[in-house]
């Protein structure tokens, strides 16, 4: 058995579910019966999420998921942890498994060309390649690939408008876009590359399995990645080899924090950081402070605080 007993599985699959709500009860029962925690999202376009548990528990849930329509070959990215990174077991129904706000887009019909991690450096070293980080601004802030364009989006919904403006600027310069995109685990790129192709861009590529796949398979001394990669669980960030990173999480705004961030005068554990201090009212911060106090009391008793917020939604 591994020295790290908790197995973490990040998974997604674009599929066509006619009735996602009908799939929820059995999936939730399987997770609960297997002692698996985390969040899985179901929508008409497929499934997405990150779960954690014992080897046997994860095997049981993955077997259930692979039996769902169109999910036999589901993408699964695995890692390990010493402690359970999630506090709840959730299956949530959504309109999209990753929200882009483009309801007519079908990633199954027009995704970009997959590029294996081992071939990624060659592609992005080509001066004709436009490299785009499709993640949100707070994710890019702690790490990205050399030379990548940061759209500075606060949510994935902003990406289509940003992309259209960027493309117009490139074409005004007489350049024909040859685009490579990347994200945490690959799911956002399934949509962003399909969107680019739907917009008429012919050469569109994306990193298969996302940054996590790259960090696992490309040696650090050959890597074009700089910094750490934000992940949507209690690990907060990982580095090369998927080793645990150095960032913590602001419990108020769910943004990653460096040691320098936590030394800021506006940082208070569980209450605020320098980014969200001005975004929250005194009443909200007082509520967060009480929540933090209750969590610390529960921890001191060796119990889990039942009032804790749900785990961050899955993304990638």
UniProtKB/TrEMBL annotation:
CDD domains attached to this UniProt entry: RHOD_YceA
Catalyzed reactions: uridine(34) in tRNA + AH2 + O2 = 5-hydroxyuridine(34) in tRNA + A + H2O
Domain of life from the UniProt record: Bacteria
EC main group: oxidoreductase
Gene3D superfamilies on file: 3.30.70.100, Rhodanese-like domain (3.40.250.10)
Residue ranges occupied by any Rhodanese domain in the UniProt entry: 125-223
Family matches, as InterPro entries: Multihaem_cyt_sf, Rhodanese-like_dom, Rhodanese-like_dom_sf, TrhO, TRHO_N
Enzyme Commission identifier(s): 1.14.-.-
Spans annotated as Disordered: 284-316
Pfam families cross-referenced by the UniProt entry: Rhodanese, UPF0176_N
Record bears the keyword Repeat: no
Keywords: Oxidoreductase, tRNA processing
Record has Ribonucleoprotein as a keyword: no
Function of the molecule: Catalyzes oxygen-dependent 5-hydroxyuridine (ho5U) modification at position 34 in tRNAs.
Family the entry assigns: Belongs to the TrhO family.
PANTHER family: RHODANESE-LIKE DOMAIN-CONTAINING PROTEIN 7-RELATED, THIOSULFATE SULFURTRANSFERASE/RHODANESE-LIKE DOMAIN-CONTAINING PROTEIN 2
Protein's recorded name: tRNA uridine(34) hydroxylase
Organism: Qipengyuania mesophila
